[in-house]
Amino acid sequence: MWTPGKHVFVLLLTLVSTLRCRADTISEFAEDHDDDHNHEILRVLPDTYNWTHRPRIKGRWLDVTCAAHLLSFGAVSEQTMDFEVSLQVAQEWRDHRLANLTQNTWLPVDSGVQVWKPHVDFANTKSLDIATAEEETTMWVSREGVVNLIVRYDIKASCQMSLHAFPMDQQTCHIRLDGFDDTRLVWGLPSLMTMNTVPVISDATAFHSQFKLAGITAKSYVTSFLPSVPGKGCTFSEQTCDYADSDACQTNTKLCADDAGSEECDNCLYYTGICGNVTKPCDLLGKGDKSTYTSLEIQFHLSRRFAYHLMQMYVPSTFIVIMSWLSFWIEIGAVPARVCLGVLTVLTMTTQSSRSHAMQEVSYVRAIDIWIVACQLFVFTALVEYAVTYRWWLTENKGRRIIIDMEDKPTENGASPEHQPIEISGKCDSCNFVPTAAQNIDRVCRMVFPSLFVIFNITYWTVYLSA
Ligand SMILES: *[C@@H]1O[C@H](CO)[C@@H](O)[C@H](O)[C@H]1NC(C)=O
Ligand SMILES: *[C@@H]1O[C@H](CO)[C@@H](O)[C@H](O)[C@H]1NC(C)=O
Ligand SMILES: *[C@@H]1O[C@H](CO)[C@@H](O)[C@H](O)[C@H]1NC(C)=O
Q1: Which residues constitute the domain of residue 30?
Q2: Which ligand is nearest to the CA of 279?
Q3: For atom 3 of ligand 1, which residue has the closest CA?
Q4: Taking phi first (over 0 means left), then psi (-120 to 50 degrees means alpha), and beta for anything else, what does residue 322 get?
Q5: Is there a single domain that holds both residue 248 and residue 328?
Q6: pLDDT per residue over 434-464, tens digit each?
Q7: 3-state DSSP percent of the chain in helix, strand and coil, to 5
Q8: Count of H helices and E strands in the chain?
Q9: pLDDT for 247
């Protein structure tokens, strides 16, 4: 049934989402609006109304129900320890002084009219922009005196990250909205946020981050400027939503471009995830010192997308380590080949390690640092192994040369002593199948190095992937 009130209501909803409205949709509504006799806008308030006064209520707390629509999420930076979100926050409260101003269900309020608004503030922001255009209607009043306010914020908020497990790490970032003047901020469903089924929903097509947003928690609790006052920390609602399947919305980025308005697209634009029950560990009423105030918090549970680091760091350095083992199969006498291979792998590994440092400088050891150091150790030891083997090989051949020299003494040739060992060792390889001790070192290393690397890998991945 199209009651006039409902009609205006739909019009308002459309205005709220003007950003997504196509021009033809707007003009369609504009035509309808000419026929609508009930369309009004609130420009003048009753003389008795004083906007600096808070609505009078029994008891301490004035309830303000809030909901949020996360419009974008991204730019998580370890360098500056912050992230960016843009979200639309709806607040609903009751102001009896504004009742009976209209016969309509909802009356838009002109942006020039000053109405009492709850004093709210984002706590951990580095920068905050109110992105709502000035001429845009953001406030509505119902016949019952219920006020709805919708504001869009672009926020850059700080997020302390612990990078010990980098790049297998998981982080939790949050934004916090504090309510002052004894307003009780509660997550709920304001009347105008009709697309919400849970207090915090997201546009899952607009997550741009090296992290996967694995879930969010919406929490309301009591806090205070002072330490250990009664009631501080009392959480009066908490709900966690699992965003595990949100990736489907991003992989198909053209989903909404091709098929705007489809159910599939809307499920992504107004993505809720799989939400748990609301828990209420503590009852707010009656709790709390005078210094307490309420806060709303959205926690973003992030898990790093690992594939990039796997391809950029782990796979290349594994290949470098394997390459360094090739040396054990090359003849000991082939000095240039073995030295080149050794030096090349050590240098390549060093380059690889400097790339890992470019990511983030921290005062502690990260998982990636342990990996890099281990790989450097492997390639470096392979080079050292050659130095030792070569030395040994030289001594062995020197001994052999003396024996052979004695045998060869009667024959007189003018060859210089330097040339003799090479010639003789060549002869000996063809006649003698028993490997020398130096060659045995190489043979053992062919087994020991890969085994140690496998053991290291098992330990490393078990520790970090299970943590
Ligand atoms: C509103 O109240 C404040 C203080 O209570 C007062 O100073 C101010 O003049 C009032 N404004 C109007 C328009 O009555
Ligand atoms: C609004 O009007 C209704 C009846 O028309 C009346 O019962 C109610 O008390 C009024 N409310 C206020 C706040 O004036
Ligand atoms: C959530 O609440 C419903 C009913 O209120 C209950 O059946 C269900 O077991 C609850 N789920 C959890 C995870 O607590």
Answers
A1: 1-39
A2: 3
A3: 52
A4: alpha
A5: no
A6: 678 888 999 999 999 999 999 999 999 999 9
A7: 40, 25, 35
A8: 11, 15
A9: 87
CA of 51 to the centre of ligand 1 (A): 8
The total number of structural domains in the chain stands at 3
Q: What atom in ligand 2 is closest to the CA of residue 97? A: 13
Q: Whose CA is nearest to atom 13 of ligand 1?
A: 50
- Residue 209, classed as helix, strand or coil, is coil
Q: For ligand 1, say whether the CB of 114 is within 6 Å of any of its atoms.
A: no
Q: Does 200 share its domain with 293?
A: yes
Mean pLDDT for 55-84 is 90
Torsional sign, CA 136, 142, 145, 150 = negative
48 lines ligand 1 (CB under 6 A): no
Question: To the nearest whole number, what is the mean pLDDT of the chain?
Answer: 82
pTM over 0.85: no
Between the CA of 276 and the centroid of ligand 3 the distance, in Å, is 8
Give the largest Cα separation in the chain, rounded.
Answer: 130
Q: Which residues pair with 222 in a beta bridge?
A: 294
- Given ligand 2 and candidates 45, 56, 94, 100, which is best to mutate, with the most ligand atoms within 8 Å of its CB? 100
Q: What is the CA radius of gyration of the chain?
A: 36
For residue 461, the model assigns a pLDDT of: 95
Six token digits for residue 43: 């420009």
